[in-house]
Every structure is written in C-alpha cells, then in structure tokens.
Design a protein that fits this description.
About 50% of the residues lie in helices and about 0% in strands. By secondary structure, it is mainly alpha-helical. The protein folds into 2 domains: about 40 residues, no CATH class; about 100 residues, no CATH class. The N and C termini lie far apart (about 50 Å). The C terminus is likely disordered.
Length: about 140
C-alpha cells in the first residue's frame, strides 16, 4: 500500500492520512531528498526548522550556535556538515554578524559543545543558583 499509493514514502502517507496535523518532516528518521530541497527553497520552513532545533538545543542567543557540535545537532536533525549549518543560519538570520563561516568547522570538536551542554544541565538541575549564560547579548 505504501509503495502503490504513497510512492514508498511514510512521510507522504501520514501527511495524507492526517492532513490537519502540523507535520515537521525533518523529524522523521529517514527524510527524502525532496523534503530537504523544499526546506532549502522555502525560507519559512527553513526558519521553522532552525527555530525548532534551537529550542531543542537550548539556544538562547545566536552565538550559542558556535558552541553546538554536529553530533548534538544530529540527535535532532540530520545535517551532514558544518558548512550546511552555517548556510542555514546565515539564511535564516541574515541580520546577525556571523564570524567567518569556517568557524562552524570547529563544530566537529566536542570541547566547547560538551561544556555548554554540561552548563545547561547544571542550570536545569539547580535553577535557583544558576544564571542564564550567554557569551554576548542575546538578540
């Protein structure tokens, strides 16, 4: 049935069967290339995905993105390279003065990203004794 009616696409099947639900196709474990093409060509969908991802990663200000690893992003969305992350962020937030895109290449490392993750967990564990941390003023 999936093959005959929905072109072997689980995403298409559930979107057709449940059209009133607000689907976020990037959340499926297997995402067809056409979904990524649609996201890249639709600024509203791209922004929705990045803002959703920012919420999952506890991004409080845009410069927090420099302290997130591809591994951490990969827990939520399959983005294959730091260049792709940089491109998405620069498109969604063109007003922000991003440091050279090659800085996102450091996302391969876990050092600062894991330190940030530890800080966020301590803040959740001890909210009364923790301050919200951001390197620069949040925008």
């Amino acid at each position: 049935m999936l093959h005959n009616y929905y072109n072997s696409s689980p995403i298409t099947a559930v979107q057709t069967v449940y059209p009133d639900h607000h689907w976020m196709p990037w959340r499926f474990s297997i995402v067809p290339h056409s979904v990524w093409t649609e996201i890249r060509n639709n600024p509203d969908k791209m922004k929705e995905m990045i803002e959703w991802l920012g919420g999952k990663l506890s991004i409080k200000c845009l410069d927090d993105w420099y302290r997130v690893s591809l591994e951490q992003i990969g827990k939520w969305v399959f983005i294959k390279s730091s260049k792709e992350v940089a491109s998405l962020l620069q498109t969604v937030y063109p007003h922000h003065k991003w440091v050279q895109p090659d800085v996102f290449g450091k996302m391969r490392g876990q050092g600062k990203a894991s330190q940030r993750e530890l800080l966020l967990n301590v803040q959740k564990l001890l909210p009364k004794y923790s301050r919200t941390y951001c390197i620069v003023d949040c925008e």
